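Just curious. Protein, please.
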Amino acid sequence: MRDIQNEPDLRRIDIDQVGIRNIAYPITVKDKLKGSQRTVASISMSVNLPHGFKGTHMSRFVEVLDKHKENIHIDTVKDILSDMRAVLNAERSHIEMSFTYFIEKAAPVSKLKALMDYNCTYSGTLSGASESPVLDSVMTVRVPVLSLCPCSKEISRYGAHNQRGIITISVRVNRLVWIEELVDYAERSASSPVYPLLKREDEKYVTERSYENPVFAEDIVRNVTGFLNADARIVWFEAAAENFESIHNHNAWALISRRREG
């Protein structure tokens, strides 16, 4: 049969990434308490395509995934990326896995437990010589939190406006950093964590704690930066805070990006 993908393209334009997106697949993620956790990821895979080729072979991406289906884990990503480069004759391969991670969380007063879900993304790019390829990987965790406005508290006779928000932390590391640790950094940087289960005594605690700990989006990213800067395992990070404002028709947003020197 005619292989159109391998036919030459005369426009002489390289393509940075070409591949497949949003294929659902079971994966295993490291769990600090249980060792590992099974979840389902939405996976995107791509390679670079030199200008001499008309197209890539989409089916080969799925074939690579199927080869590793019994052990798709963050620790095996380099093997998957290596196979992608070999099978698709590429110089660079890239994978992105977005998944839900669950942590059992106790309410602050009643201590009742329930599962809290966090949206995470792991991305990896393999490039360089085939005998010594370099893996560049980034872990991203999105943590829902509560923030109370310092300005509103200062100018109001009764209460202060507060809202849920999302803290997004992305890191490159030289040693393992647990998802649970990044969640903790985020939650300690806001007015209060968000909980999956609260009784009345817990709601009282969260409300009063937030009132006693007001923070702007700017405060949140600076707080997160303090934790990440102090963690020697983190060589690069990006911290963003977005507050879903309760009295404004816009969201408040702030971001800090840093690379560790030396």
